[in-house]
């Protein structure tokens, strides 16, 4: 088989509709922060997700930071956070001088384990907030998580950075917690080159976040500051990219699902590899197609990733759990089942992300599937 062009994990996929918004920003000289594209992007994202209010920010990380501040997280507080996630879910907890307590995953969705969450409450009954992540584009199990959170009166910050457009029991992810956030980073399902959005159902949330995100300038005839501010707002040019991207979000989700289903079918007879589970309660956006190598197989993900890299195909390791990260060494961690090895560690040790770029053709997908089948020595007549 020919080793032609490089296949990447997930790259920006412009629709062509973005330029009209960008051109308008240039034509009207509305380049600087704020402007009609920012307001338009916020309103259009609300219309898509059903959120009442939105605040376009410079990144998903900034949105988490602002969300935690709004929920009152400060020095000495405890915040629960899933361990199996990208570090940006947890870093803002530290920005606020609080302590992250990491929660293991459940097998059904790889997201926060309600069982481990309950155990964490036994030891830390008064966390200030719970960050819940919808990993790789799939919703966490909110009915179970919210029941526990509500029983303790603790708000949820929903990190939907990876899950824009995914649903939980028909409701858009990002709109389920007290505050939700999305990311438009370069590898996300839609991108603005970099950016984020905070959403909430109460106006007071976005009013306060807008205030902090624009340097906390008081309403006065001179520069007056009573609080520490941040420069976190999205620019009018960047928001124009977002408006064009949002128009094709449904197309991107459909293609991501197609990619996942393609892999599932291609590896149906492969005993060594299993696609990530899809929980019955929702519809993911299939941001990244992930898989695990079965425990009986001796092969480690790195060997498969190295093999694919040598064939010009980019995959990635699964997020390394936060409780294993040197920077979070010593942070408390609650195992899904203390009698068994941690679920997040197990997924990390056996999992990988397969190329999920929406610009891939069937020929690209066939090339990847063929290589993986060959790697496991399972070449059938089809491959
Ligand atoms: C789960 C998760 N949370 C937060 C972020 C941070 O978003 P951003 O890169 O826009 O700051 C990302 C992605 O980058 C993410 O995957």
Automatic annotation (TrEMBL):
Protein name: DegT/DnrJ/EryC1/StrS family aminotransferase
Entry's family note: Belongs to the DegT/DnrJ/EryC1 family.
Keyword Repeat: no
Keyword match rRNA-binding: no
Any one Gene Ontology BP term: polysaccharide biosynthetic process
Entry-annotated residues carrying N6-(pyridoxal phosphate)lysine: 188
Active site: 188 (proton acceptor)
Cofactor: pyridoxal 5'-phosphate
Keywords: Aminotransferase, Pyridoxal phosphate, Transferase
Biological source species: Trichococcus shcherbakoviae subsp. psychrophilus
GO molecular-function term, one example from the UniProt record: transaminase activity
Coiled coil: none
InterPro entries: DegT/StrS_aminotransferase (IPR000653), PyrdxlP-dep_Trfase (IPR015424), PyrdxlP-dep_Trfase_major (IPR015421), PyrdxlP-dep_Trfase_small (IPR015422)
């Amino acid at each position: 088989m020919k080793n032609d062009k490089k296949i990447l994990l997930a790259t920006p996929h412009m629709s062509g509709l973005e330029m009209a918004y960008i051109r308008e920003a240039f034509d009207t000289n509305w380049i600087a922060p704020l402007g009609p594209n920012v307001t338009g992007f916020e309103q259009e994202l609300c219309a898509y997700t059903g959120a009442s209010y939105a605040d376009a920010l410079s990144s998903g990380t900034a949105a988490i930071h602002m969300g935690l501040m709004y929920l009152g997280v400060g020095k000495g507080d405890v915040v629960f956070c899933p361990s199996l996630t990208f570090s940006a879910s947890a870093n803002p907890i530290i920005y606020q001088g609080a302590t992250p307590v990491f929660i293991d995953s459940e097998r059904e969705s790889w997201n926060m384990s309600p069982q481990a969450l309950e155990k964490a409450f036994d030891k830390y009954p008064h966390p200030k907030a719970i960050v819940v992540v919808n990993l790789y584009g799939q919703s966490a199990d909110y009915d179970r998580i919210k029941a526990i959170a509500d029983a303790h009166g603790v708000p949820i910050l929903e990190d939907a950075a990876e899950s824009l457009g995914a649903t939980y029991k028909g409701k858009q992810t990002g709109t389920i917690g007290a505050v939700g956030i999305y990311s438009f980073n370069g590898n996300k399902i839609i991108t603005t080159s970099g950016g984020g959005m905070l959403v909430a159902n109460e106006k007071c949330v976005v009013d306060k976040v807008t205030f902090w995100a624009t340097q906390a300038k008081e309403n006065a005839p001179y520069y007056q500051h009573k609080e520490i501010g941040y420069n976190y707002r999205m620019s009018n040019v960047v928001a124009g990219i977002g408006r064009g991207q949002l128009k094709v979000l449904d197309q991107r989700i459909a293609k991501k699902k197609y990619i996942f289903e393609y892999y599932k079918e291609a590896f149906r007879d492969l005993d060594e590899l299993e696609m990530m589970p899809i929980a019955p309660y929702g519809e993911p956006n299939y941001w990244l197609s992930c898989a695990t190598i079965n425990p009986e197989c001796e092969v480690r993900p790195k060997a498969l990733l190295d093999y694919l890299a040598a064939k010009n195909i980019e995959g990635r390791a699964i997020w390394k759990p936060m409780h294993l990260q040197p920077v979070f060494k010593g942070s408390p961690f609650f195992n899904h089942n203390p009698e068994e090895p941690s679920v997040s560690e197990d997924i990390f040790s056996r999992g990988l992300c397969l190329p999920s770029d929406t610009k891939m053709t069937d020929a690209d997908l066939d090339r990847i599937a063929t290589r993986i089948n060959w790697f496991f020595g399972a070449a059938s007549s089809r491959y």
